[in-house]
């Protein structure tokens, strides 16, 4: 009974703001983009510049913890400087709470592209796309952070380019996983993904690649389900990079090792008739 009441209460106080509402006398809400575990993100218009922006507010039901996580996220976003990673435009602090104002990336997520638009990727297209995405991932690593949430809903496809969003789980290399994360989400992670290390981000990159490669997979009638190695017809170099990403072979200790092997795999595919 208590859990039920608590859920009703949380849904009531987290009820999204309405289109037309004005935040901090500046950001006019258009629509709700999504409700995450600790924040609500809205598409807004900045009344000063006329620009579209994404505004992320803490969920009222998560109070201080959500504000703390958002502040962290803002601190990390400030340290990024890449045209395909949204810029933090402002961090608004006021007595009723705080929120983040980010560059809005219009487009569709890779998840929507694959599952709603049924977009398919060949092996070659997947490699070319991954090389672009890895450029953003290497930027994050070079700045001393691990993203830790590289997944298809966190990649926005705009004008043929992948944009990497959502730094809510990112940590600095060597930083300890804080209790706040452990309670919120980390305990659900596979052991291969728990370390704050390059190979954990690359493990996620491996999954993302599998989603892209499975987009053109068509099971034969009566075919029993198998592993990705059994189901996907992959060229040996692509299979090998995936096995390294999944730590079935010696893992990559640096993202650039993976990029080099991916480039090599692309060259070999080009040589094929
Ligand atoms: N800068 C941005 N530009 C465009 N869309 C964005 C931007 N940031 C977030 N979004 C979109 O807003 C929605 C909510 O994102 P948000 O990061 O708040 O939560 P989430 O990813 O759904 O959940 P969680 O934070 O629990 O992982 C998602 O659909 C995401 O694609």
From TrEMBL:
<feature type="binding site">
    <location>
        <position position="56"/>
    </location>
    <ligand>
        <name>ATP</name>
    </ligand>
</feature>
<protein>
    <submittedName>
        <fullName>Serine/threonine protein kinase</fullName>
    </submittedName>
</protein>
<keyword id="KW-0808">Transferase</keyword>
<keyword id="KW-0723">Serine/threonine-protein kinase</keyword>
<dbReference type="GO" id="GO:0004674">
    <property type="term" value="F:protein serine/threonine kinase activity"/>
</dbReference>
<dbReference type="Pfam" id="PF00069">
    <property type="entry name" value="Pkinase"/>
</dbReference>
<dbReference type="InterPro" id="IPR011009">
    <property type="entry name" value="Kinase-like_dom_sf"/>
</dbReference>
<dbReference type="InterPro" id="IPR020635">
    <property type="entry name" value="Tyr_kinase_cat_dom"/>
</dbReference>
<dbReference type="InterPro" id="IPR000719">
    <property type="entry name" value="Prot_kinase_dom"/>
</dbReference>
<keyword id="KW-0547">Nucleotide-binding</keyword>
<keyword id="KW-0067">ATP-binding</keyword>
<feature type="domain" description="Protein kinase">
    <location>
        <begin position="27"/>
        <end position="273"/>
    </location>
</feature>
<dbReference type="InterPro" id="IPR017441">
    <property type="entry name" value="Protein_kinase_ATP_BS"/>
</dbReference>
<keyword id="KW-0418">Kinase</keyword>
């Amino acid at each position: 009974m208590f859990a039920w009441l608590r859920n009703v209460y949380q849904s009531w106080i987290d009820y999204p703001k309405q289109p037309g509402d004005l935040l901090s006398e500046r950001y006019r809400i258009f629509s709700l983009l999504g409700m995450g575990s600790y924040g609500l993100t809205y598409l807004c218009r900045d009344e000063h510049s006329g620009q579209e922006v994404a505004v992320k507010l803490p969920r009222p039901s998560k109070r201080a913890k959500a504000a703390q996580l958002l502040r962290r996220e803002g601190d990390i976003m400030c340290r990024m400087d890449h045209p395909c990673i949204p810029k933090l435009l402002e961090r608004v602090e006021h007595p009723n709470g705080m929120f983040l104002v980010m560059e809005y990336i219009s487009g569709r997520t890779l998840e929507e592209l694959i599952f709603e638009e049924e977009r398919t990727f060949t092996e070659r297209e997947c490699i070319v796309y991954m090389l672009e995405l890895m450029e953003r991932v290497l930027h994050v690593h070079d700045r001393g952070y691990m993203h830790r949430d590289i997944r298809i809903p966190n990649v926005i496809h705009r004008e043929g380019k992948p944009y990497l969003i959502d730094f809510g789980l990112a940590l600095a290399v060597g930083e300890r996983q804080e209790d706040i994360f452990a309670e919120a989400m980390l305990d659900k992670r596979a052991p291969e993904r728990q370390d704050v290390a390059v190979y954990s981000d690359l493990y996620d990159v491996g999954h993302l690649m599998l989603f892209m490669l499975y987009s053109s997979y068509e099971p034969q009638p009566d075919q029993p389900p198998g592993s990705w190695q059994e189901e996907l017809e992959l060229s040996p170099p692509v299979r090998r990079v995936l096995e390294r990403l999944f730590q079935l072979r010696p893992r990559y200790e640096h993202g650039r090792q993976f990029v080099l092997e991916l480039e090599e795999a692309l060259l070999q595919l080009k040589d094929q008739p």
